[in-house]
Design goal:
It is a single chain. This protein has 16 helices and no strands. By secondary structure, it is mainly alpha-helical.
């Protein structure tokens, strides 16, 4: 029964995100008609919020507030922000509304992991084996949200935000019914200043393995932001070309993009095998190569004869995402001290969805606007995606030489 309740949490957590994350670009360019630089700034709000909120909430969950209660409160507050996003009348208004919304939503990603890990551990479940089948339903939730928005023709509508808001309210209330997840980092005896401010997790950077791991997590977080920001928009722009206007990929781009999440469900379930067989270094390297292929296939794909490349790119996305995001979270759960695990998970989210997302959003928005826009306003998608592919390849090559998996034996136990 407890696994089912955790499954519901996972499903709804990502259903909320799936309602608008992939389609906000279509909403932006079809309703607001603001330029790519402004969109890059707006999309960076997820990264800006993740620069500090996951770390702060990780500290609170480690030391002061039961994780499941904090998780519920954040979703209730996030629901308010989601409801008001469509009311924005300028890029400045939307920036502040989405930033406030992301301040409440982004830390719930790592907190949902913290809650699941704590409940599974205290009930003597094997986390490596038990968590992926639960987490996979988060991806199913994301897919269901995408299909719901696409089939109801709400990809450019404000309704995507209203639906997300309603589900966020429900999830916030449901979270209070979960078993208690008390803070595990409360200290006995003298309290150190570093402990008060939750800086203990940053001590992980003293470990070369963790320092390199977090750095490359940030670089992969940038790659994730690129595909989230421009994937759906890429397909939408084919509607201006007569030969593609009636194609399935143009009529239902969110459904095509959801193949990526369907692929995730398969690769999530494969994570325990790959982690035990290859270790974190090889698994993350596979992810990086998958990102190269993801972008390169988009560069040469189209909704006509090149549809197979777009579909294959979406399939590869499952490996690209899961093999660094889910595996990275499990790596931290197994490697960090229990007193700082919530903070360490928050730090991981900060590096991926914070520093990495800000870097990916701002740099891509600037590069596209200044180097890859034609005189008629259309984007040079082939050059854009190939630039992203080259970036991922450079990251992969650097990773081979810099990261050492000293904990390889732990995954074989």
């Amino acid at each position: 029964m407890i696994k089912f309740r955790l499954t519901v949490i996972s499903f709804l957590q990502f259903f909320i995100w799936g309602c608008w994350l992939i389609t906000i670009g279509a909403y932006w360019f079809n309703n607001k008609k603001w330029d790519s630089t402004e969109f890059g700034v707006i999309f960076s709000t997820m990264g800006l919020a993740s620069l500090f909120m996951p770390a702060i909430t990780g500290i609170l969950a480690d030391k002061l507030i039961p994780a499941q209660k904090l998780y519920g409160v954040l979703h209730l507050l996030g629901a308010i922000g989601l409801f008001f996003i469509p009311q924005a009348n300028s890029p400045q208004d939307m920036f502040w509304i989405i930033l406030a919304t992301m301040i409440f939503y982004m830390p719930t990603i790592s907190l949902s992991n913290t809650v699941a890990y704590h409940i599974l551990t205290t009930r003597n479940f094997n986390v490596i084996k038990s968590f992926p089948p639960i987490r996979v339903w988060g991806t199913v939730g994301f897919i269901c949200a995408l299909w719901t928005i696409s089939l109801t023709k709400n990809e450019t509508s404000a309704n995507q935000f209203y639906l997300a808001s309603f589900v966020s309210v429900f999830l916030g209330i449901f979270s209070f019914t979960l078993p208690d997840c008390p803070p595990l980092g409360r200290q006995k005896g003298p309290i150190k200043l570093a402990s008060i401010f939750g800086l203990s997790a940053f001590q992980l950077f003293k470990d070369r393995q963790f320092a390199v791991f977090f750095t490359f997590s940030m670089l992969l977080g940038a790659a994730l932001q690129l595909t989230n920001a421009y994937g759906d928009t890429f397909l939408h722009e084919f509607s201006s070309k007569t030969e593609y206007a009636q194609s399935l990929a143009v009529k239902y781009p969110a459904m095509i993009m959801s193949i990526s999440q369907i692929s995730e469900t398969l690769f999530i379930l494969a994570i325990p095998f790959f982690m035990r067989r290859f270790g974190i270094k090889q698994v993350m390297l596979i992810s990086m190569i998958a990102w190269v292929l993801r972008f390169a296939l988009f560069a040469y794909g189209d909704p006509g004869s090149g549809l197979w490349m777009i579909v294959l790119s979406c399939i590869i996305y499952g490996m690209a995402f899961d093999f660094f995001n889910i595996s990275g979270s499990l790596f931290i759960e197994q490697s960090a001290n229990k007193e700082i695990r919530s903070s360490a998970q928050g730090l991981f989210t900060t590096m991926v969805n914070g520093v990495g997302a800000v870097f990916g959003s701002l740099s891509s928005g600037y590069i596209i606007q200044h180097f890859f826009i034609n005189q008629d306003g259309s984007k040079q998608w082939n050059n854009i995606w190939m630039t992203f592919a080259i970036y991922a390849l450079i990251v992969a090559i650097a990773f081979v030489f810099l990261f050492k998996d000293s904990k390889q034996k732990a995954w074989n136990n």
